Write the structure tokens for this entry.
Amino acid sequence: MGTPNFVIPVLEALISSDYEVAAVYTRPDKPAGRSKQPVASAIKRYALTRDISVFQPASLRPLQVQRELASLYPDIIIVSAYGLFLPSSILNLPPLGCLNIHPSLLPRYRGPSPVASSILNGDTITGVTILKLNEGIDTGPIIACQDTSVGPHENAEELTTRLFQIGASFLMEVLPKWTLGKIQVQPQDETQATITKRISREDGEIDWKLGATHIARQVLAYRKWPGSYTRWKGKLLKII
């Protein structure tokens, strides 16, 4: 289960392994561009080139959608930047659970914008967490973590891409041990938890009262969404 282009390495790794990928679940096609014609997600386009069945429900709550998924008899579900809530009936469906690849060292930076938040805060170390999903937002028990340095000029687009590449390789190390029951999950330390917010277009406007260091981090953190911009002589100026 995944949607954007940066999670393609996760699907590639699964296809290249000995695991059978029964299907790919991704978000419905979205209108894009001036024509507003529906455009398929990157993961859908890739899956179709590999002759993998693709499902695109708008929600996983309807009973028919859950029956359809159950008919695939999944042993495990891998979730990576999917974007839809998984109800308990689906979380409990596969015998080996639903595993999520999250681009931060949990319990820090739960929620929708972990990479941007890490860059904004000036972190020099971040990483990838593989966790077993529960009904909370990134609150499930941790299976394994792997850290990595943050480059001094690495932007969110670059770092996100790299983290999911790391996550894909790391998943291939973890899965054999997980399927054999050789990994003991660790509950998250709630006293160390931090939550990120969904970034809006308005967040990209530069506040010149803030220091130069913060503004420089913002430009890196908000690449590619929502971008950084200011207004100059009545016109919009985008900071690339």
In short: The first strand starts at residue 24 and ends at 25. The helical segments are 8-16, 42-49, 63-70, 88-91, 114-120, 156-179, 212-221. Residues 156-179 form the longest helix (24 residues).
